[in-house]
Amino acid sequence: MSVNEDLMVMASDQPLQSVVRDEHLLLAPPHPSKVPMKLWDEHPPLTVVHYPQEYQEEAYAPPRGVYENDEIRVEWQKLDGRQPFYHRNCDVDELCYQIAGERTLMTELGVVEHRPGEFSRIPRGVAHDNYSRAASHLLFYIPAPVAELVPAQRESQAVFPPFPGWQAAPANEAVSWNLGTPGRDITIFGVDEQQLLEHVHKDDRRLQVLRPDRSQDTTWLYGTDRVRIGLVNTVPGGERRYRRTLDADEIQYQANGHRTLITQHGILDLKPGDFVRIPLGISYASVATEAGDYVSLLSRSEVPQIAKTSRTADHYSPERLAALTAEVRS
C-alpha cells in the first residue's frame, strides 16, 4: 500500500516536502547490501515507560525522572497532600501538565487550581509548592526563558488562604540548579510561608494557565529555539500519514485514549500513562480507534531515557500491519 510521509523540521508545522512510500518497504528490513552498514534489525526497538494514571497510595516520594540530558529533564510525579518544601530553580523554567486529580499550585506569583489537561509555566527564580489531592502531573525543566505560544485560558490569582484549612506554618525553601534534579540542591533554609506567598501583591507577573484547542490536530504551547511542547489530538479513521522529524527527538506521553504507534523501530500499542521516545529521523504514524490525545516534546538534542523500561515495541510484520488496517476499516 502507498502512503505519504511528511519530512518535518521542528520550527515549522508545514513539511519540507512529502514523499510517497511503499508502506511495507518503509517498515520492513532493508534490501541486502554489499556495503557494511547498521541494518534495521540491529537498531533496538522503541521502549515504553509506564506510570498508572489511577492514584495508588504510598508514602511521599520525589518526582521520578523519565528522560534527561544536559538541558532538559522530564519527570512524573504523584502526590497526595503537601510536598515538604518550597522550591526555587536557578537555571530553568518549570513547566507542568496536570494528568489527574486536584492540585493547588502555590507560588510567589499567585495560586492556580489545576485541573486535568491544563499546562502552566513557573518562571526561573519563582518559589512554589503544591497541595495535591490524589493527583499526578508531568514536569518539564527547560533552560529559561521559555515562551508561551498561545493565549492563556486564565491566570494565577492572589488567594488567601490558598486552600481551605491552610494556616501559615514553619516551612523550608530549597534552591536548586541543574534541571531541578533531586540531590542537586544548593541550599535549604527556613522561610515565613505567609510572607513568601504575599509577594504576589508586589509583583505584576502572573502564571499563565494554558489549555489546548480541541478543534486543532496539534497545539504548540511552549517553545524555545531548541524545544517545543504541545498536545496532539488523535481521532479514528482518516489517512494514515507518516512523519519524519529531521532535526529533533520526540517524546510522547499518552494522556487519553488508546492508539497504535507504527515506526521504523517497531510497533507499540499505547495506553494512558505511557511514555515513548522516537529518535530523530525515524518515520512513524499513529492509528487510533478512539478519540485521544498525547503530549509531545520536540528537542534538538537527544534526550535519553533514564527510567526503567516497562515494555518494548514488537517487530514489524505484514500480518500485524494488515490486522491494524482491518481494525481501522471495521
Per-chain topology:
Blueprint: E1 2-8, E2 17-22, H1 23-27, E3 47-50, E4 64-68, E5 73-82, E6 86-89, E7 92-107, E8 110-114, E9 119-122, E10 128-143, E11 147-148, E12 154-155, E13 170-176, E14 185-192, H2 193-197, E15 208-209, E16 218-223, E17 227-234, E18 241-245, E19 249-256, E20 259-263, E21 266-270, E22 274-278, E23 284-288, E24 292-299, E25 311-312, H3 318-329
What does this structure look like?
- This protein has 3 helices and 25 strands.
- The strands form 6 sheets. It has an 8-stranded antiparallel sheet, with no helix packed on it.
- By secondary structure, the chain is mostly beta strands.
- It starts with a strand and ends with a helix.
- A hairpin with an 8-residue loop joins strand 1 and strand 2.
Total strands: 25
Helix content percent band: under 10%
Please give the oligomerization state of what you see: single chain
Largest sheet: 8 strands, antiparallel
Shape: elongated
Instruction: State Rg.
Output: 21 Å
Spatially, the strands of the biggest sheet line up as 11-16-17-24-19-22-3-25
Could you give a quick summary of the protein structure above?
This protein has 330 residues and is mostly beta strands.
Key phrases:
330 residues, mainly beta, 8-stranded antiparallel β-sheet, 6-stranded antiparallel β-sheet, 3 helices, 47% strand, RmlC_Cupin_sf
